[in-house]
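Folds abound. A case:
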Amino acid sequence: MLEEDFLPQKKKPQLKNLTTLSVDELHEYIAELKSEIVRTEDEIKRKKASADAASAFFKKG
């Protein structure tokens, strides 16, 4: 068995059926997605800052 066999598999997000949504619901959905993008970008910044701080700490040696 390969090591890859034991790693958790990332599921692709299920695509939402947009044809059943009204225009207002589509606008709401866009707002939700934009909010999630902002939340994700904030998490990336937080993790990058943490990695940069750790890198700077260990470079001072």
In short: The radius of gyration is 19 Å. The mean pLDDT is 90. The CA atoms of residues 16 and 29 lie 10 Å apart. The helical segments are 23-60.
